[in-house]
Write a structure and sequence with these properties.
- Strand 5 and strand 6 form a beta hairpin.
- By secondary structure, the protein is of the alpha+beta class.
- The chain has a single domain, classed as TATA-Binding Protein (2-Layer Sandwich), CATH 3.30.310.80.
- Strands 1, 2, 3, 4, 5 and 6 form a six-stranded antiparallel β-sheet that branches.
- This is DUF1499 domain-containing protein.
- InterPro entries: DUF1499 (IPR010865).
């Protein structure tokens, strides 16, 4: 009887935790962060394309708003992606993409700024929960860049 109660309690707590992960609100004030100002956790659960990141900022001859419009189209075509905040005209967009099975949310912030006659594209993809991301954030960023021929 005690074992049954413990098993039921464990199943119930697991279900509550998984439900929370799926429905917990994502506050734009916390997650809509310019990648050039990223404060990284030190955990292996993010991927940063910016000077000093995992990979340097991408330099492109496409104007910033156009570059962000293109990446917005790529992002919004993916399964489980919603736009949390920002727009191409603002120079910063943050998306949330949820994993297919459990619904773990990842935040992806993208900024583009003029740099002389070019633009500098910065991306910060990070997991909201967990210690390790199994390379998901890097794969996402590299996939988006490849879709734009910026990889």
């Amino acid at each position: 009887m005690i074992i049954r109660s413990l098993v039921l309690a464990a199943v119930g707590l697991t279900a509550l935790g998984l439900t929370y992960v799926r429905i917990a609100p994502t506050d734009p004030a916390v997650w809509n962060v310019d990648p050039t100002k990223a404060i990284r956790s030190g955990k292996p659960n993010d991927y940063l394309v910016a000077d000093g990141g995992n990979r340097p900022a991408i330099v492109s001859d496409v104007p910033p708003a156009d570059l962000l419009s293109r990446i917005d189209a790529v992002a919004m075509a993916e399964v489980g992606v919603t736009r949390l905040a920002g727009s191409p005209d603002e120079g910063l967009i943050t998306y949330v993409q949820r994993s297919r099975i459990i619904g773990f949310p990842d935040a992806i912030s993208v900024s583009a700024r003029p740099d002389g006659m070019d633009s500098r594209l910065n991306i910060w993809s990070r997991s909201r929960y967990g210690q390790y991301d199994f390379g998901v954030n890097r794969a996402r960023v590299e996939r988006w860049l490849a879709a734009l021929n910026l990889g």
